[in-house]
Amino acid sequence: MNMKSIGVIIGNRDFFPDRLVAEARVEIVDLLKKLNINGIMLDTEATKLGGVETFQDAHKCAALFRAHRDEIIGVLVVLPNFGDERGIAETLKLADLNVPVLVQGYPDDLDKLDVARRRDSWCGKISACNNLYQFGIKYTLTTKHVVHPTDPSFIKDLNDFVAVCRVTKGLRNVRIGAIGARPGGFNTVRYSEKILQRNGISVVTVDLSEILGNANKLHAQDLKVKERLDKITSYASRGRTPDEALIQMAKLDVVLGDFIEANALDATAIQCWTSVQQNYGCNVCTSMSMMSENMMPSGCEVDVTGTLSMYALQLASGSPSALVDWNNNYANDDNKCVLFHCGNWAKSFLPDIEIATAPILGTSVGEENTWGALAGRTPAMPLTYGRISTDDPRGVMKAYIGEGRLTDDSLKTFGNRAVAEIPNLQNLMQYICRNGFEHHVVMNASKTAGILKEALGNYMGWEVQVFDEPTQQPNPTRMPDRELVSQN
Q1: Is residue 358 part of a domain?
Q2: Second label for 192, Cα 20 to 30 Å away, from 206, 331, 353, 453?
């Protein structure tokens, strides 16, 4: 299955020039090919020029889309002329794909507004969107109201739209493993499994004793253990890590991998302390880092919605995410702060990665029992941050997202660490505290806040607050009836 397959509806209206439809088809097919997107559309023999105009055309196009239901992650509506507003909406209703929809209209040329060459797509797009709104079909708008497919802004819109489709499809089917109980001291990571399930997000639980018990049954000589040991030492410098600690880590990694495979999991949230250290004798950070680097996000302290946030940001960017603490102020700079965790960030964030111990945790469980934490400093790179949570008293899903950058500012400490510069940081912290968000946030080396806003707010129907301008005040937009459209 091609995860980048989109359905294409080319609108038409009988009293506009048919050649505009034929020309648009060639241009769209060429663009999709260049962007490595598989377009699924009517053949030119199926309807007049392969466009959708009549109710019969809508039936044919909907049947084609249904035949490719498992492939199509979104639909592109192309309006080379005014288009038939009913045919577009009826196609989507009959296909019943429940996927994102991007609406594009062609611009008119100022010297071609005669009857034989005019498009009127500016007006037709409004009518098409009006019908989609009436039908309760959610849709995305291009940055420019009308835009030619070769315009750089549309190429970005289309690439972003594919990412929106990827996020939406992924979140509606994600399976997260909750491995162990929430640590007693972390009320902050409580969540509603039932609210998640209503949104298509499944949580599979397992007692940590089962995982540790199965790990203790393995031996250093077992082939699976040797293979995992090789993967671990190839992944990161072992530093001063003792052989026995590496073997413990490898055995645990085998069992975690078996559990993930048996339950078809996309991500995991693990009880990473303190039971693992006290009852097994090592940290699970290295395994979590390896999973996150391999696009199977793994979050700390059984933070299931934090792990869900990792997955969402990963889907938006196509690169690994890390779960971090909003940890420290950075001197007197109001727009900078320190991001930190014991040591399980994906390798992509840690060019100087090394297996080490967790000194803070070691003060209570013995540092010799914390081998497996990773040390490393994240250098300057782009930053998208975000957090998804269940607001249990209100029964809703909510999120905040924004962009900034990671810097190379001096930072003398241990563990996994980074310095973030974020516009409007003080207002962001006010918003987090006033709205009951967790101390964990997710970072991703991308600029994908717009994609996440569209996917989480418009298509998932969650409350989303975006922080993007230094002067912006928190003004969350909610779509309570799940019928409202994106405000691009």
Answers
A1: yes
A2: 453
Strand-pairing partners, residue 6, are: 39, 74
Reported as a single tens digit per residue, the pLDDT across 292-337 is 999 999 999 999 999 999 999 999 999 999 999 999 999 999 999 9
- Whether residue 161 is found in the same domain as residue 238: no
- Residue that finishes a domain, picked among 154, 171, 188: 171
Query: Are 210 and 162 found together in one domain?
Result: no
Spatial CB neighbours of 196, under 8 Å, sequence gap ≥ 6: 202, 203, 304, 305, 308, 390, 397
Judge residue 484's burial from the number of C-beta atoms within 10 Å of its C-beta, 0-12 exposed, 13-18 middle, 19 or more buried.
middle
Are 160 and 267 within one domain? no
Q: Cα 229 to the chain's mean position, in Å?
A: 31
Beta carbons of 357 and 241 less than 8 angstroms apart: no
Residue 192's domain is classified under what CATH number? 3.40.275.10
Q: pLDDT by residue (tens digit) across 81-105?
A: 888 889 999 999 999 999 999 999 9
Is 359 in the same domain as 433?
yes
Structural contact between residues 420 and 443, judged by C-beta atoms closer than 8 angstroms: yes
Indicate yes or no: pTM above 0.90: yes
